[in-house]
């Protein structure tokens, strides 16, 4: 017995077991995938990235999860169905598992290539079924899941009569297109929310957010008095006149100061431990990667040796210090120091901004997070390997200074608007989850015979006969038997 005959026999045995176990709609039948397709894996040819770089063309190059590049030649020029062999998201039902490719393409060995037997089914019907199918027990591996050809061949496919398959596919295409349209619309919301938050910060830092508040509160102490108070505390003259033109148009009751002018007495803005010595237990030392979503991931913070940290005592952290990422792709990220990290330190890629109690540290953070602050840091960026802002340049960042009572009102209004945005994000997360589940719910109804009227029910209603899926099996076997001599002749020819 040949290997192919033995594999076919094993597939048939598995399919028969599934047929006996499944409860299917009348007229349906379960087939092993191998019975319904021609496997074209032998025609795949992988091309490494170095060679592909020399052969860039106009033909799509496909891998486990879709197109991964372009190449100058093709292996297939027809409609085929691809399913990942390894590295596909087999258990992530928010992503497609199988995909159809039409026209010229090249496929590497990370994707199985199959073609439906049109006498029994279609590539599109199988694609939807595989997107719904539970691959538990059919794939192996931990970090990179793998679907062997033998396991793929044995996948039990729930097959409806041909006419019913067409109705199922038509209905699925209609419903899933609506789901996809909804997903695309939802995907735009995070971008809109980001713009909304930035517009709120821009209005907050220019005084537009509290324009109506100033009309009512005319007796507020102007910022120049606050500036004089900070100057007296620091014991030095604040020179904010180095800006020929103010970076922003702010109200007359506001003032401009440099970031350094807002530090606590005897403190300065500086960066942290250079080349830290990491130890299991020591001084908690915040890295850029520990700053996430405006907070510090305390459990992820590393520890520097006490001896090394003591050499950078100027960046010993106090509660409420504002930390800012000073270079790289994360330039401008901010986070406040929580009580649990008091006495800790930072690395050389993080700035410590010890803000005076005379001003609201939250308002200062708004300025740095705003387009004004972020743009200013990018304009001052220097370096090639790791572009960033020098601590000296950051110290002279222009900061708009409102009266203290207006700072508090700005914070109240920004918090209210940001809370509104946060609520929308929560609803968005829920909506996305519901839509992802909706796709699987639709597919489940389709392959349980509940999405469209079954052929059995329609035939009974019309008083006519119909061809059940079992007849498809007979047709497939008849065609297979008819092709055996041809295969045998080819085998004999190649063996000579």
**Proportion of residues in β-strands:** 15-25%
What's the quaternary structure here?
Answer: single chain
Task: Label the overall shape.
Answer: elongated
Instruction: Write down how many β-strands occur, each being a DSSP E stretch of 2 or more residues.
Output: 22
Summing up helix and strand content along with how strands pair, one would put the structural category as alpha+beta
CATH class of the largest domain: Alpha Beta
Distance between the termini: 20 Å
Rg, Å, rounded: 33 Å
Largest sheet: 4 strands, antiparallel
Q: Do you know the CATH topology of the largest domain?
A: Adenine-n6-DNA-methyltransferase TaqI, Chain A, domain 2
Q: Helix tally? A: 15
Write the layout of secondary structure elements.
Elements lengths: L2 H19 L7 E4 H4 E3 L9 H6 L4 E5 L2 E6 L4 E2 L2 E5 L13 E4 L2 E4 L3 E6 L6 H10 L16 H5 L2 E4 L2 H45 L4 H6 L6 H12 L20 E4 L11 E2 L6 E2 L3 E4 L4 E2 L2 E2 L5 E3 L1 H5 L11 E4 L8 E3 L8 E2 L3 E4 L7 H9 L1 H9 L11 H5 L2 E4 L2 H43 L8 H8 L6 H27 L1
Parallel strand pairs: 3-8, 14-20
Antiparallel strand pairs: 1-10, 2-9, 3-4, 5-8, 6-7, 6-9, 11-22, 12-21, 13-17, 14-17, 15-16, 18-19, 18-21
Helix pairs in contact: 6-10, 6-13
Overview of the structural elements:
By secondary structure, this protein is α+β, with helices and mostly antiparallel strands. It has 3 domains: 3-159, DNA methylase specificity domains (Adenine-n6-DNA-methyltransferase TaqI, Chain A, domain 2, Alpha-Beta Complex), CATH 3.90.220.20; 161-216 and 406-465; 221-402, Adenine-n6-DNA-methyltransferase TaqI, Chain A, domain 2. Helix content is 43%, strand content 16%. The chain contains 15 helices and 22 strands. The protein has helices at 3-21, 33-36, 49-54, 123-132, 149-153, 162-206, 211-216, 223-234, 306-310, 361-369, 371-379, 391-395, 404-446, 455-462, 469-495, and strands at 29-32, 37-39, 59-63, 66-71, 76-77, 80-84, 98-101, 104-107, 111-116, 156-159, 255-258, 270-271, 278-279, 283-286, 291-292, 295-296, 302-304, 322-325, 334-336, 345-346, 350-353, 398-401. Strand 3 and strand 4 (66-71) form a beta hairpin. The model is unreliable at 10-21 and 487-496 (pLDDT under 50).
